[in-house]
Amino acid sequence: MKEQDGGIAVSVWIASLAMMIGLILSAYLHPAWLLLATGVSWAIVACIPLPYRKFVACYSLIIILAGLFFCGYEILHSSEVKPLAEREQSIWIEGVIDSPVRRDGDVARFFVTITSWGENQPDQNVHRSLEKIALRVKLASFQEATQIEQWRRGSVIVAPIRLSLPAPTRNPHAFDYASYLYWQGVPVTGETNYQAIDVIPAFSVSASFQEWQDSGAKRIESLFTDPETAGYMKSLLLGLGQEVNLELAAMYSNLGLSHILAISGLHVTLVSSMFMWCLERIGIRRRLAFVVTILFLIGYVLLVGASASAIRSGLMGSVGLLCQVFGKRLDGKDVWAGALILMLVLNPYQLWHVGFQLSFAVTLGLIIFVPYSLHVFVRVPVWIRTLVSVTLSAQLVSFPFLIYHFHLFSPVSWLVNLVVTPILSAIALPFGYIAVVLDFVHPFLAVIPVWVSTAMLKWIHLPLFAIEKMRLPFTYWPHPSWCWLVLYTCFLGVLPISWKLGYHRKRDIMLTFVIFLMFIVAARQPFSGVEEVRITFLDVGQGDSIVVEIGDQKVYLMDAGGTMRFPAAEPWMEKRDPFEVGKDVVLPFLMARGIEKIDRVVMTHGDLDHIGGVKSLIPHFSFGEVLVNGTAPSKLEGEIVQLFQQEGVPIVTGLPGQSWSDGPGIEWKWLHPGESTFSGNDASVVLQLTAYNKTVLFTGDIEKDGESQLVQNGLTSVDVLKVAHHGSNTSSTEELLAVTAPKVAVISAGVKNRYGHPSSEVLHRLKKSGSAVYRTDAHGAITLVITPTGLYWQTQILDT
Question: Where exactly are the transmembrane stretches of this chain (predicted)?
Answer without folding.
Answer: 7-26, 32-50, 57-76, 256-276, 288-311, 351-370, 382-406, 412-437, 444-467, 479-497, 509-527
